[in-house]
Design a protein that fits this description.
Length: about 110
């Protein structure tokens, strides 16, 4: 299975996927850590994919999305964006709305 196949499979088989440096339990960069904090705060079930596990995965996700940076968040097969976009959407309440609209359960926030 190629990295591209693994990426496509992860996105197809999971409602929310975060391609990140490290794991949700141990992020290896601050940007990945910020997105993990947001998803954990919202109690969103998601799959974390460690792109540091292989060079093919690290390069493959950039080519797959045509997006140069990591982390990358996907919801129901749709590329949402990287850390800055996810953070801005979260602060504006747009991320919560998008997740709910996609049928993903989100914790109620004040």
């Amino acid at each position: 299975m190629t990295a591209r196949d693994e990426i496509a499979s992860a996105i197809k088989d999971n409602d929310v996927v975060l391609f990140m440096k490290g794991t949700p339990q141990f992020p290896q960069c601050g940007f990945s850590g910020q997105v993990v904090q947001i998803l954990d705060y919202l109690a969103v079930p998601y799959k974390g994919v460690n792109v540091l596990a292989s060079d093919e995965m690290r390069q493959g996700i950039k080519e797959f999305s045509n997006w140069p940076t990591i982390p990358q968040l996907y919801v129901k097969g749709e590329f949402i964006g990287g850390c800055d976009i996810v953070r801005e959407m979260f602060q504006a309440g747009e991320l919560q709305s998008h997740l709910k609209g996609a049928g993903v359960e989100v914790k109620q926030t004040a």
